[in-house]
Amino acid sequence: xxxxxxxxxxxxxxxxxEKEGTSKAELMELAxxxxxxxxxxxxxxxxxxxxxFGNNGGDGWVAADVLSQKGISVDVVTPVEPDEIPAVLAxxxxxxxxxxxxxxxxxxxRDELSALLEKADVVVDAILGTGFHGSLRSPFSIxxxxxxxxxPVVVSVDVPSGLDARTGHVEDDCIRADRTVTMxxxxxxxxxxxxxxxxxxxxxxxxxxKMDEVIGDVEHAAEIVEPADIVDxxxxxxxxxxxxxxxxxxxxAGSTQYPGAAIMAAKSAARAGAGYxxxxxxxxxxxxxxxxxxxxxxxxxxxxxxxxxxxxxRSAVCDLAKKYSCVLCGPGMTVSAGGMDVALGLxxxxxxxxxxxxxLNCLAKASIGGIDQTPEMxxxxxxxxxxxxxxxxxxxxxxxxxxxxxSAIDAAQKIVWAAGSDNLVVVAKGPTTAVVxxxxxxxxxxxxxxxxxxxxxxxxxGILAGSMALWADQVDIWELLVSYAVxxxxxxxxxxxxxxxxxxxxxxxxxxxxxxxxxLAGDEALRSLGLLDGEGA
Length: 537
Ligand SMILES: NC(=O)C1=CN([C@@H]2O[C@H](COP(=O)(O)OP(=O)(O)OC[C@H]3O[C@@H](n4cnc5c(N)ncnc54)[C@H](OP(=O)(O)O)[C@@H]3O)[C@@H](O)[C@H]2O)[C@@H](O)CC1
Ligand SMILES: [K+]
What we know:
- This protein is of the alpha/beta class.
- It folds into two domains: 2-224, Rossmann fold, CATH 3.40.50; 227-238 and 246-528, UDP-N-acetylmuramoyl-L-alanine:D-glutamate ligase (3-Layer(aba) Sandwich).
- The chain is 42% helix and 15% strand.
- The protein has helices at 7-19, 24-40, 55-69, 88-98, 110-119, 140-150, 195-199, 211-214, 259-271, 283-292, 313-321, 337-348, 357-366, 375-379, 390-396, 405-419, 456-471, 478-500, 507-511, 514-528; strands spanning 2-4, 46-51, 73-78, 103-106, 122-126, 153-157, 179-183, 201-205, 222-224, 248-252, 276-282, 298-301, 326-329, 353-356, 384-387, 424-428, 434-436, 441-443.
- The strands form two sheets. It has an eleven-stranded mixed beta sheet, with helices on both faces. Strands 4-3-2-5-6-7-8 form a seven-stranded parallel beta sheet, with helices on both faces.
- It is elongated and about 80 Å long.
- Potassium ion (K) is lined by residues 56, 125-129, 156-159, 161.
- Residues 10-215 form the YjeF N-terminal domain.
- Its cofactor is Mg(2+); K(+).
- Belongs to the NnrE/AIBP family. In the N-terminal section; belongs to the NnrE/AIBP family.
């Protein structure tokens, strides 16, 4: 797993590295060399480097120096003369570079900048990095717009200029990078809010050779889960399994209004590997589900006048639930008094539980003031996975704003920290999904935009349930198993987008691609471990 840091922790890391004997000036040299190396890969003849007032600009000045010494023609744009740059380290390297074979442009007009952009093969954006805050000021607001209008190949240093590295928020404008070369460790803002739209391909320059020895000394905002991290869940089934040893799932879902959600979740659980799946649905929609899923038994449950779970549903569902390795509750069940009772009843049972969709809305309604105040939550010991999207998550924490990855992690941590259990995981679903536990925040591979379609969440909940049933006995870290399920869902998105076209994917397409998605994930894990295509370990 690869750590992702907050900007405060990056500063702490720099201080630790300095204490270990590598100064910030040396780090800037290493950063600039790394940028130059990444730019050189693009084989440019003419590079334009835009620098700002701070150390982000310093990285750019070093890169200019290195590239020009390799015989590449370099133009450097600066807002002020090198002697007037306020940041000490940046001023030092700017003076040095200005004395070498680079062309300098101090405070160019928009037309002059456009002319420079026209002759450049690659543009390096070293205008603003982690020190950026507030609204963009001139001249950078003009530079950024001019660069984006010209749409050249752009390599951003550390962070695309204009992006708040703490939150991923873009207020006015931001460099649209083809590649972002981030230093020491990726910043959380690169994954949050507007970040993914502007970052392009992300490359990290660790710079410090003994990073392994110091990275544990700072807090990680999150960790990126790589294919090799989930390889344990991608193994073949042992030859001696039977349907019971593969685990069983009870899907508590559906209503006359939304029988489809129950169908998709149950079928996905079976496709994800559970040996036995059963649906408990309000009686009036049970037959529709039976017809759609001939291989899956459906138990009709007492219902209310609207065809949702009724007053007697709780005991019927809870009696059944005890017999399963895992229970998934929520898809399509609507918010009803009976549904609230079912969700609370399942919370009190000693069975691994996934609460999704309307089960979460039921819970939010039942616990005014936030779920962190609900006794059923912190009394529970069996594993509990909750899968809210941002709106559901906001309801669960009493209405706090949840609008991006950073605020979603905050809200999810409020829930898991209140319960304080290793067995509680909140999957904060969004463009970048975070898997949040008491001690860890994991970022599994994100899927394509095609996954943003109705019913996609029901498929994810099913994959999660099937995976939990199959692997429950072999789990040390629940966050990792959940990350596996999220990654498989992402792979179904890529496979479906390829087959049906990015805009045409519908949720039912994803279900039959769960198997192929596991193959894709398996191949990628083996490749990254050097075990595929005769690469040899
Ligand atoms: N330290 C290290 O060891 C290493 C650091 N490294 C590099 O340093 C970078 C961080 O450098 P940094 O802290 O100097 O901040 P940086 O992003 O250059 O910007 C500060 C300048 O921008 C200005 N400014 C702010 N907001 C603005 C706005 N809205 N509109 C306009 N201007 C605005 C701000 O002005 P002020 O707020 O002071 O008025 C100040 O003048 C980091 O991203 C990485 O690239 C690497 O080399 C590795 C080693
Ligand atoms: K930048």
